[in-house]
Amino acid sequence: MSVLIAGGGRQARAIAHKFTEWEIPYEIVERNEERVEKLKKDGYSAIHGDILKWKMPQSVNIIVSALPAHPGEKVYHLCIEKRMELVDLSYTDFDPFTVEEKIKEAGIRVFFDTGIAPGLSNLLIGFLSKKLERVEKIRVLVGGIPVKNIPPLGYTITWSPSDLIEEYTRSARIKRDGKLLTVPPLTGIEKMYYEGVGRLEAFYTDGLRSLLHTYTDVPDMEEKTIRYPGHAQKMKFLMDMGFFDKEICNNKGVSPYMMNLCVLKERLNIDIKDLLLMIVEVGGTKNNKKSKYIATLLDRAHDEFSAMERTTGFSCAAFTRLMVEEKIEPGLYPPEKLHMFTKRVLSLLKEDGIKVILDADQKVEEVLLINEE
């Protein structure tokens, strides 16, 4: 099978790196000519073009979407129309379940939310939930941060700045006692500590996504983003002051959003190594007793790739390899529905030193969170 990677950003490079290793034929399609030339110079196969206007070669079987969030829905309709299979990394507001029937009618396979979280986190939830008779709680804590708490925000940009702002401004959906609640982003701040990283905080973000469809009977679910202490309060101040408003200010032709997007790109694009921490907790009952399973991942930047690129891009590449090699029926697949391939994906990631530790293999104190509220 031949793969077309839509978008030539950081994650696309990481994906292409793995495809080269695995000898999966690919081409990156990127709209920015300068980026295309840089990709070529670095040894990647890339062409200039717009995936939504591209005349698809017959040799292409799969599209891997590594685009920013806003064109996400159009890629789904393109794949349905062209009957091309899709591995979607993009984090978009579009709900793939609204086109599930069209995907089945087209006879194609669509894997979506195939990054780190949602993505690998969902795969682990699907895997761990099978160990329980009844799932009662799902909890994901995840974040990519610099190895040092650098001022002013304790953060460096390792993915799309526009998608980052969307994460901070979009209301978060959680479940409490069986009820679906919508809570403001950057709230529910929880102080925590992780050995080897230090003091941190976690706050609500809208990361449950497909889990709200596939685990409808689970009464308690939440996802929180991990940052260094004080980050949420600073970002909330900027949001409350209107720095992320998209309306044009005083007819000057620029919105606070666009101005501050440029500022964040400039000020937070710091050349410093990063790390990614993820904790996935699935609780419930087994043999009529309360039981809980925890999976953790702590990865650090290595060689040319950041921890965010490694965990997100390499995970997406692993999901794509499943589509290439495994006999999976046509349909729409969030990662939790691919739980039967968890050990395969973890094995592929382990080749690059990305190790997910399950609670059976670690000391309990290594995953304990210290809530200081």
Report the CATH superfamily of the largest domain.
Dihydrodipicolinate Reductase, domain 2
Radius of gyration: 20 Å
Helices and strands: which structural class? alpha/beta
What's the level 1 CATH class of the largest domain?
A: Alpha Beta
Task: Name the CATH architecture of the largest domain.
Answer: 2-Layer Sandwich
Quote the distance from N terminus to C terminus.
52 Å
Spatial strand order of the main sheet: 3-2-1-4-5-6-15
Percentage of residues in helical conformation: 25-40%
Uncertain parts: 360-373
Mean pLDDT: 89
Number of domains: 2
In short:
The protein is of the alpha/beta class and 373 residues long. It has helices spanning 10-22, 33-41, 72-82, 100-106, 120-129, 161-169, 211-214, 231-240, 256-267, 307-325, 342-350; strands at residues 2-6, 26-30, 46-48, 60-65, 85-88, 109-112, 134-146, 172-176, 179-183, 190-194, 198-204, 220-227, 274-286, 289-300, 331-333, 356-358. The protein folds into two domains: 2-112, NAD(P)-binding Rossmann-like Domain (Rossmann fold, 3-Layer(aba) Sandwich), CATH 3.40.50; 120-305 and 355-366, Dihydrodipicolinate Reductase, domain 2 (2-Layer Sandwich).
Present the secondary structure layout:
Blueprint: E1 2-6, H1 10-22, E2 26-30, H2 33-41, E3 46-48, E4 60-65, H3 72-82, E5 85-88, H4 100-106, E6 109-112, H5 120-129, E7 134-146, H6 161-169, E8 172-176, E9 179-183, E10 190-194, E11 198-204, H7 211-214, E12 220-227, H8 231-240, H9 256-267, E13 274-286, E14 289-300, H10 307-325, E15 331-333, H11 342-350, E16 356-358
